[in-house]
Amino acid sequence: MKIQLRPIREDELDMVRVIARDPAYAPGNWYGFRPVAGLAKEFAENGFLGEDVGRLAVEVDGEAAGIVSYLKGRYSVRGDWYDIGIALKPEFRGRGIGWRAQAMVTDYVFAHWPVERVQAATQPENIAEQKALLKAGFQLEGVVRAAEFRAGAWRDSLLYSRLRHDPAPEY
Q1: Residue 31 three-state SS
Q2: Which residues pair with 69 in a beta bridge?
Q3: Is the four-CA dihedral 73, 42, 32, 15 of positive or negative sign?
Q4: For 161, phi and psi rounded to 5 degrees?
Q5: 20: helix, coil or strand?
Q6: Out of 3.10.180.10, 3.40.50.150, 3.40.630.30, 3.75.10.20, which CATH number does the structure's domain 3-163 have?
Q7: CB atoms within 10 A of CB 28
Q8: 147 within 8 A of 129, measured Cβ to Cβ
Q9: Three-state SS for 110?
């Protein structure tokens, strides 16, 4: 199985729209319907390849399997970091693609921006994602209490990170 990250193509905008609107893609991250009209504009402006926020296609054996994303954050004046996320088509889950794609996007961030930290968060009930992040070289930092409002309630989140000099997994 050949897994790679690449820029999203214009003919894949419908996949990005579906991922943004269909709760089946990321049920633990479903925050209600959101507008998707701006996606075409964002793609036209920068191809989803911005420095502060970006998306890449996850390609498996030549087929787009989903997307990974990165979002820049800051803890202090000189404390930039990136948060990563992933959404895979249901038929590509459970095959070891997710952790590899998350390790790859982390390596991509470290290769192209001078940051020390990449982080990712997941829900306490999302055991598969917790295992994927550990395989991708992340370490659990702790619980962020009442971190997100989802499905009518405030919910905790588990915060994971990988620092630049932490061992990177082989994928």
Answers
A1: coil
A2: 55, 85
A3: negative
A4: -145, 155
A5: helix
A6: 3.40.630.30
A7: 17
A8: no
A9: helix
pLDDT digits (tens, 9 = 90+) for 88-104: 999 999 999 999 999 99
- State the DSSP string of 113-164: S--SEEEEEE-TT-HHHHHHHHHTT-EEEEEEEEEEEETTEEEEEEEEEEET
Q: What is the dihedral of CA 135, 136, 140, 143, to 10 degrees?
A: -110
Give the pTM: 0.92
Place of tokens 């989903």: 66
Strand partners, 120: 160
For residues 29 and 32, what is the distance between their CA atoms, to the nearest angstrom?
9
What the block records as the tokens of 93 is 């889950």
CA of 122: how far to CAs of 17, 63, 85, 140, in Å?
Answer: 22, 26, 9, 10
Contact yes or no for 82/71 (Cβ under 8 A)? yes
Q: Name the amino acid, one letter, at 121.
A: A
pLDDT tens per residue, range 102-156 = 999 999 999 999 999 999 999 999 999 999 999 999 999 999 999 999 888 999 9
pLDDT of 45-98, one tens digit each? Answer: 999 999 999 999 999 999 999 999 999 999 988 899 999 999 999 999 999 999
